[in-house]
Design brief:
The complex is a heterodimer of chains A (149) and B (103). With 149 residues, chain A is an alpha+beta fold. Chain A has two helices and nine strands. Chain B has no helices and seven strands. The chains are: A alpha+beta (149), B mainly beta (103). β7 of chain A pairs antiparallel with β5 of chain B, so a sheet runs across the interface.
Chain lengths: 149, 103
């Protein structure tokens, strides 16, 4: 196959675009959401004037006891339809918001991740479906705090 | 050497995509054991997961994510030959991108 100038330009544009895109999203990183504060302040700032319903349709796969708080695996699945955003929060971490994921329609509601926990507390998962917010929580006992790792 | 590893597996109802990124994810609170100085915060802030150049998931994270972050996703419709890509950007402006072809 010959490598034509057209090929080169096409590839170059795609490559340059892929470099430019992450730079754009830097502006979207919400430093405020990830600031040091209590869980209640974080929830109030993230979901102002929102009713968050507790739901049994969000399923968390979390260890009951995490021996090492620096690596806590979590798997989130849900039977709620059209979930577009998932938030993971840990109640007693210095920065309670751990991560926020947007989900495209072509993705199953499924997220696997690993996060750090400072001490024994509840892990809260909030999902957004349209304008509705749902949450669920589970307590994880941490034997060795992990924010040092 | 890329910092990103991607594995995919086509299953009956979905395609599982897993990614492992080599990154220290420093919180900024740890001390260097030899010098006693604080190690500055160094963590991934955004991660973008694409399927055939379409953004599937944008993840914003703080340093609450573990060192060497691991993520997994499930694509509903993916065929052999589809391209998925993962890119990340950290608070120091470093970034990396990797593409992977689903078998």
């Amino acid at each position: 196959m010959r490598f034509t100038r057209r090929d080169f330009i096409q590839k170059f544009v795609v490559f340059a675009g892929s470099l430019a895109l992450p730079k754009l999203s830097l502006a979207n990183w919400f430093a405020d959401d990830f600031s040091h504060r209590s869980i209640n302040a974080t929830l109030a700032a993230l979901f102002p004037e929102q009713q968050i319903q507790s739901s049994r349709k969000i399923f968390l796969k979390l260890p009951r006891i995490a021996e090492n708080g620096s690596v806590v695996p979590i798997t989130i699945t849900s039977s709620i339809k059209y979930i577009d955003t998932v938030y993971i929060l840990s109640e007693k971490n210095p920065v309670p918001l751990i991560a926020k994921f947007s989900l495209a329609p072509n993705l199953d509601t499924f997220i696997g991740a690993r996060f750090k926990m400072q001490e024994t507390c509840n892990v809260i998962v909030v999902v957004k479906s349209g304008e509705q917010y749902y949450k669920t929580q589970q307590k994880v006992k941490v034997t060795l705090g992990g924010c040092g790792g | 050497m890329s910092t990103i590893k991607i594995r995919s597996k086509r299953l009956k109802d979905f395609t599982l995509v897993r990614t492992l990124i080599a990154h220290p994810m420093e919180t900024g609170k740890n001390k260097n054991e030899e010098t006693g100085e604080l190690i500055p915060a160094h963590f991934i802030q955004t991660l973008i997961f694409k399927h055939n150049n379409e953004v599937m998931s944008e993840c914003f994270m703080g340093f609450g994510i573990s060192k060497n972050p691991f993520f997994s996703f499930r694509l509903k419709a993916a065929k052999a030959g589809d391209v998925v890509s993962i890119s990340w950007l950290d608070n120091l402006g470093n970034s990396d991108i990797k593409e992977h072809i689903i078998r």
